[in-house]
Amino acid sequence: MGGTFYCMDLREKALREKLAVVLPLMNERQRRIVAAVEARGYGRGGVQAVARATGMSRQTIYRG
Fold first, then answer.
1. Which of 14, 22, 30, 36 gives 26 a disulfide partner, CB atoms 3.0 to 4.6 angstroms apart?
2. How many domains does the chain have?
3. CA separation (Å) from 3 to 6, 7, 9, 10, 32?
């Protein structure tokens, strides 16, 4: 079971690093859309993972 959490941590770290490069280059609307797309692609728990990675609220990500 511990391996699952480690894998999720690595996924979130990769997500955080990717978004840290891309999001500063975008306007607010683009950031919301990219965050929503990433959350959807992440699967279950994606909105929460993107919220943690970006500091965006979950409602902002849902609005996408």
1. 30
2. 1
3. 5, 6, 10, 11, 31
Give per-residue pLDDT as tens, 3-48.
556 666 888 999 999 999 999 999 999 999 999 999 999 999 999 9
The answer to whether the CB of 21 falls within 8 A of the CB of 59 is no
Name the packing angle between helices 28-42 and 46-54 (round to 10°): 140
Q: Give the range of the structural domain holding residue 18, as residue numbers without chain letter.
A: 2-63
Contact 9, 41 (CB under 8 A): no
**Which tokens is 58 given?**
């979950």
| 53 contact partners, CB below 8 Å, separation of at least 6 | 12, 15, 16, 19
The 10 Å CB-count burial string (b at 16+, else e) for 9-21 is: eebbeebeeebee
